[in-house]
Design goal:
This protein is α/β, with parallel strands linked by helices. The protein has 15 helices and 17 strands. Helix content is 39%, strand content 18%. Helix 1 packs across helix 4, helix 7 runs parallel beside helix 8 and helix 11 packs parallel to helix 12. This is tetrahydrofolate synthase.
């Protein structure tokens, strides 16, 4: 493979689904590559929602301390290269081509004795990431899981510490069907004698994490018990301030450039993880320095206000817990505002539940659409759950234009949500040369 596009075509042509829960193929390719996952220290981040934000925030905080940082996230917002970054800079096209070929050559070598050997797309990308990070001589990797924990293809290294952001009902066909099943799967990132930080989780599953941490002799830090936030305030410039308190870190009036209430909780989880990281690495960081970094962080596609006249807000909420949190923030931040919702979903998501949530606020008008990809829900997947007032459009562009032209005033709001892929396309269109 010689070109960037050839590499992307190869990566995306790999099987998408986990054919089994086994990590055997992942361990097999890493052995062939010389165990690149052992070349650096890592932080493992899982959770139903919030793990992308926590991964990004942690990476920024650690980078500011002079460490060379690798960041692994999924999915991307604008370009595939965002999935693996060094010092918050996406992998170059040339490096992606080079390291994909390196992994591919090892796959061909394995096939000489194991002809049926194959990697899924996520296994392949994970192998490329580990190999690239080793070559770049990073010191700390912040690695976001794909799905779950125990059987996730990233769960092949021993982290410095682990993070579990939230637990909710998503990916139930793979790690469900119950909330307890989801929690048990995510608890697999907890490793022996390694600290674990846990955000807001339902009380019904909290004991699962406590028992796992106790069995592994892992120090446990839980939100609302070992750390908490207070004095959350929305500001006129569409930012927020809040206070953070833990045993070893107390910060007053932290400012973040985001209006989502749930991002305050994500910031708190990241701050607690960073505090524990500093203890592990014997690093002391002034409070003013931490606040400076948090003020600079931009969370793309996470209740992101990209326009104010009219308001256009992007959020990748794609499961019921995230959608509920999103609407709670919208109703807090834009009270009594008419909201025009442009939404697309994937077929394997809880579409009925998602639409029930979107149908609750009276001041919301829905413009449902689809995306040009096999997983995207189409009209036939949506009809049974639509209200008579909901509208369907064959393309997101048509849905967006309908919402835009139905605005009665510049004070109304267009909300783009339901799929990170929709957010990606709309963001690229509106911020990189497109026009409303």
């Amino acid at each position: 493979m010689e070109t960037y596009q050839e590499v992307l075509n190869y990566i995306h042509s790999r099987p998408k689904k986990h054919r089994s829960a086994s990590l055997a193929n992942m361990r097999r390719i890493l052995t062939a590559l010389g165990e690149p996952q052992t070349a650096f220290k890592g932080i493992h981040v899982t959770g139903t929602n919030g793990k992308g934000s926590v991964t990004q925030i942690l990476s920024a905080l650690i980078l500011d301390q002079g460490f060379k940082v690798g960041t692994f996230m999924s999915p991307f917002i604008q370009r595939f290269n965002e999935r693996m970054q060094v010092d918050l800079k996406p992998i170059s096209d040339e490096d992606l081509v080079y390291w994909t070929n390196e992994v591919w050559q090892k796959i061909l070598l394995i096939r000489q004795t194991e002809p049926t050997f194959e990697l899924t797309e996520f296994e392949l990308v994970t192998a490329i990431m580990f190999t690239y990070f080793r070559a770049e001589k990073i010191e700390i990797a912040v690695i976001e899981v794909g799905i779950g924990g125990t059987h996730d293809k990233t769960n092949v290294f021993t982290p410095l510490l682990s993070v579990i952001t939230t637990v909710g009902l998503d990916h139930l066909q793979l790690i469900g069907p119950t909330l307890e099943d989801v929690a048990i799967e995510k608890s697999g990132v907890i490793k022996a004698q390694r600290p674990v930080i846990i955000g807001k989780v339902p009380e019904t599953v909290n004991k699962i994490f406590q028992d796992r941490a106790q069995a592994q002799d892992s120090p446990l830090y839980q939100m609302a018990q070992d750390f908490q936030v207070s004095q959350v305030t929305l500001l006129p410039d569409y930012s927020q301030t809040f206070n953070f308190t833990s045993e070893n870190l107390n910060l007053k009036t932290i400012k973040i450039r985001n209006i989502a209430r749930f991002e305050v909780d994500n910031m708190a989880v990241a701050l607690m993880a960073f505090s524990v990281f500093c203890q592990e690495m014997q690093v002391t960081v002034p409070a003013a320095e931490i606040k400076r970094i948090l003020k600079q962080v931009t969370l793309m596609g996470r209740l992101e206000v990209i326009n104010t006249e009219p308001f256009i807000v992007l959020d990748g909420a794609h499961n019921p817990p995230a959608m509920s949190e999103l609407l709670a923030s919208i109703q807090r931040d834009f009270p009594n505002t008419q909201v025009h919702v442009v939404a697309a979903f994937m077929k394997d998501k809880a579409i009925e539940e998602l639409l029930k949530i979107l149908h609750q606020p009276r001041q919301m008008t829905l413009y449902l659409t689809t995306l040009a990809m096999p997983r995207a829900a189409e009209a036939t997947d949506l009809t049974a759950y639509m209200r008579s007032s909901d509208q369907y459009f064959a393309t997101w562009q048509d849905a967006f234009y309908a919402a835009y032209h139905n605005l009665a005033s510049e004070n109304e709001l267009i909300l783009i949500c339901g799929s990170i892929y929709l957010v990606s396309e709309v963001r690229h269109f509106l911020l990189e040369g497109g026009q409303t």
